[in-house]
From TrEMBL:
One GO MF term: methyltransferase activity
Designated name of the protein: Class I SAM-dependent methyltransferase
CDD domains: AdoMet_MTases (cd02440)
Keyword annotations: Methyltransferase, Transferase
Record organism: Actinacidiphila acididurans
Length: 276
């Protein structure tokens, strides 16, 4: 029997943000760490995280010594990021006098007057669920103002045949039809999607890679909550209802459930490094 989460109604922003922070976000740690290793993120790094969410990628960069600034439009996620990153009034001063940790509400293009792009040598847009239409204005602002040669990292899904979660996302697409088909934003999963996005923003592609990011959950209800927290099922919920989407996700998870009740889906994510 499918689990009924949130008593049959759509979860609030705080519940959803906490599900993302506690269940789903950690699935992308291999992506973050691979990029940081490749770019040798350390004490001299000054990083700006676009769509920083609840701050795990910033936390990992900060643990390497980087000074980190993040911006996001979701206040519920930013509240969790503050709890993670700023338990004390300040972490002190980082490279070139930059505050070691900053969190801002908004997108980079809207905050362009408040963010000195010249302060940063690494800009990340790690959210693979972010549609290109949402990223373009922020990346264009980066291209206009970031120091020449600064690294800009974009992330997206790997080929569908390498991503077990594609089967779940197909459920979201089917449930969203036909009501949300015209407005649903495509995922960045095509071979050249990240490069095209960078070029259109005025950035120069300069390398890419793939990373294995398995999605592992303690049980099926946790998997449902984690997947719903990504936002990728929002159109399906709008077109049907919360309980129907939960039921369909649970059924689609059956091939990935293990004898001990845990759930594992193997996925590959792609990242691309561009230069301002």
């Amino acid at each position: 029997m499918a689990p009924t989460l949130y008593r049959g109604h759509r979860p609030g922003a705080q519940d959803r943000a906490r599900d993302w922070a506690e269940i789903q976000e950690r699935m992308l740690v291999p992506l973050y760490e691979t990029v940081y290793d490749r770019l040798e993120v350390g004490a001299d790094t000054r990083m700006l995280a676009l769509g920083c969410g609840s701050g795990l990628a910033m936390l990992l960069a900060g643990a390497r010594g980087a000074a980190v600034t993040g911006c996001d439009t979701d206040e519920s996620l930013l509240d969790l990021a503050r709890q993670r990153l700023m338990p004390e009034p300040t972490w002190g001063i980082g490279p070139a006098g930059l505050a070691r940790t900053r969190l801002l509400t908004g997108t980079a293009d809207v905050l362009e007057d408040h963010i000195r792009f010249g302060d940063y040598d690494l800009i990340t847009a790690f959210d693979p669920a972010a549609p290109a239409s949402r990223l373009r204005p922020a990346l264009a602002a980066v291209a206009r103002s970031a120091p020449r040669g600064s690294a800009v990292v974009l992330a997206g899904w790997g080929p569908p045949e390498r991503c077990a979660t594609s089967r779940l996302l197909a459920v979201a697409t089917r449930l969203a039809e036909p009501r949300a088909a015209a407005t649903r934003a495509p995922r960045l999963s095509g071979r050249d999607d990240l490069e095209d996005l960078a070029r259109h923003a005025g950035l120069r592609p300069d390398g890419s890679g793939r990373v294995s990011c398995p999605f592992g959950y303690a049980d099926a209800p946790s998997a449902v909550r984690g997947l719903l927290s990504t936002g990728l099922f929002d159109a399906a919920v709008e077109a049907t209802d919360q309980q129907q989407v939960e039921k369909e996700i649970t059924e689609a998870l059956h091939p990935y459930r293990r004898p001990d009740g845990t759930v594992r889906m193997d996925n590959v994510f792609r990242y691309m490094i561009a230069r301002a």
